[in-house]
Design goal:
about 290 residues, alpha/beta, Rossmann fold, 2 domains, eleven-stranded mixed β-sheet, elongated
Length: about 290
Amino acid sequence: MKKIIVPTDFSNQATFALDLAYEIAKKEGAEITLVHVIEIPKKNTAFLGSSIDTEATLEGEDPMERVFYLKLIEKREEQFVEILDNPKYKGVTIKEKLVRGTPYEKIGELLTDVKADLIIMGTTGADSWEENLIGSTAEKVVRHSKCPVLTLRNRFHVKDIKRIVLASDFKDDLETYKSVPRTLKNFFNAELHLVYVNTPGHFMNEREIMKQMDEFTEDNKLGKIERHIYCHNNAGEGILNFAEDYKMDLIMMTTSGERSGIFRLFNHSIAEEIVNHSKKHPVVTLNIHK
């Protein structure tokens, strides 16, 4: 892990994400790009910063809106300076990016530009039907990201991660993410547990599941692991319950591009459910079809 992107809205959760990114970057010698997106209509998207005339990017807008955005840009730049001058982040290169547009789209563009290995972002989750309907920036980033995404609600330290669970149906290998579970296992010096959540809609017999887990472990060179089958009527709730019952410290799950029908691995709706409702555990998602 050499380049990490941390989206920020300057909230407590965003600070938790930056603090964890700092610990990882310090240990790995990585660089952090801290990005804030000022959300505006798509017709007015632009990168902002010393290399771009911020006045010009606002031409043609309503005068009051223009004043509002200029004041907001000034405030955000001051917040960036406050973070970058904080001595607790000493020893790690942190680059700031201030952009205007749709958050998940701009984060995706930056991901390509930076060639990041990991996105770490805080999320407040979604605890109501309305919030689930609207969707959070975090879940949209998870849905579209071309690199692993680590989301968290609370403060976590590297030393806190000792037991990692990887949830999957174990029918495919990890393709371009083949090294990620092994890398995280070694980085955190953690136990790696595999779990298949057996649901009525996707029931499998134990012998078949264990065989797939063994083949998955060998194909992805995971080394020593623990295997589990957990029964639940809902895959998402089952993963969260397993993580709590077995005292896991981090949830990792593979996702695919399917949102309906019989799924290979877990579909995005389940991944987003986990991201939105995991209050106690940070979550790493691997979008294997990206």
